[in-house]
Amino acid sequence: MPRMDKLSTYRTTVVENGDDLAVTYVSTAIVKRNGNKITLDSGGWETVTTKRKMNQAARQFALGYGVYQEKHKWYVTTPKGETLPFYDGITFDRY
């Protein structure tokens, strides 16, 4: 079973620069943090692996969100406790 608290390096790169963070899986920046803003993007690949890597990044970098699936649709629980339907490019506040 894969670790849920830390990203694997398989086809994944992480670039941190101050308050900015980009987690790229294959060729898509699936998680971006720019100061207080977090943006999620599946690149059109709403797969178990993409979702898992988004959640691993949230835990590893203490971003406070979660992504889950219910009845074939993805949802995001934001750090403020909101539950929003997932879409590529969804952006929300970290604090």
SSE layout:
Layout: E1 12-17, E2 20-25, E3 28-34, E4 37-40, H1 48-60, E5 66-70, E6 73-77, E7 83-85, E8 90-93
How would you describe this structure to a colleague?
With 95 residues, this protein is mainly beta. The chain has one domain. The protein has one helix and eight strands; from the N terminus they run E-E-E-E-H-E-E-E-E. The chain has one helix at 48-60, and strands at 12-17, 20-25, 28-34, 37-40, 66-70, 73-77, 83-85, 90-93. A five-stranded antiparallel β-sheet has the order 1-2-3-4-8, covered by helices on one side. The chain is globular and about 35 Å long. The mean pLDDT is 95.
Structure, briefly:
It contains one helix and eight strands. It is mostly beta strands and 95 residues long. The strands form two sheets. The protein has a five-stranded antiparallel beta sheet, with helices on one face. A three-stranded antiparallel beta sheet has the order 5-6-7.
